[in-house]
Amino acid sequence: MKTREYLILLALAEADLHGLAIARAVEELSEGQTRLWPVSLYGTLESLEGLGLIEELDDPRHRPADESEKKRFYRLTRPGHRALAVETNRLGALVKIARSRLKPRPGRAA
């Protein structure tokens, strides 16, 4: 899974968000390392939606009442939640391996 896809799913795990809010959340989650410009943001959202990992909220009843109807809101789906969990576990295992390899070895300078 690409970093931007993972970060978008992670952002949507907390709340339903519109495009600009997703971009802001991704930037915050990545501590400024990942910025999503409109083309990459909406292209990635379209791809994630095509995979069934997120869905656009078309029904006005599912949208925040105080938000503009022009904003497109997205929600994480059950398969999206599962994909996020699987990728999080994979990354966690990778971090565990990395930490074990980064420990100083006897006789080697740190």
3D architecture notes:
- By secondary structure, this protein is mainly alpha-helical.
- It has one domain: Winged helix-like DNA-binding domain superfamily/Winged helix DNA-binding domain (Arc Repressor Mutant, subunit A).
- Helix content is 55%, strand content 8%.
- It contains 4 helices and 3 strands; from the N terminus they run H-E-H-H-E-E-H.
- It has helices at 3-14, 19-29, 38-50, 78-102; strands at 17-18, 54-56, 73-76.
- The chain has a 3-stranded antiparallel sheet.
- Helix 1 (3-14) crosses helix 2 (19-29) and helix 1 (3-14) crosses helix 4 (78-102).
- The protein is elongated, with a radius of gyration of 17 Å.
- The protein starts with a helix and ends in an 8-residue tail after the last helix.
- The mean pLDDT is 89.
**Total number of distinct structural domains:** 1
- Please give the number of β-strands: 3
- Helix % is 55-70%
Strand order of the largest sheet: 1-3-2
Summed up, the helix count is 4
CATH class: Mainly Alpha
What pattern of helices and strands is seen along the backbone? HEHHEEH
Features:
single chain, 110 residues, 4 helices, 3 strands
Give the topology, please.
Layout: H1 3-14, E1 17-18, H2 19-29, H3 38-50, E2 54-56, E3 73-76, H4 78-102
Antiparallel strand pairs: 1-3, 2-3
Helix pairs in contact: 1-2, 1-4
What's this entry about, in short?
The protein is mainly alpha-helical and 110 residues long.
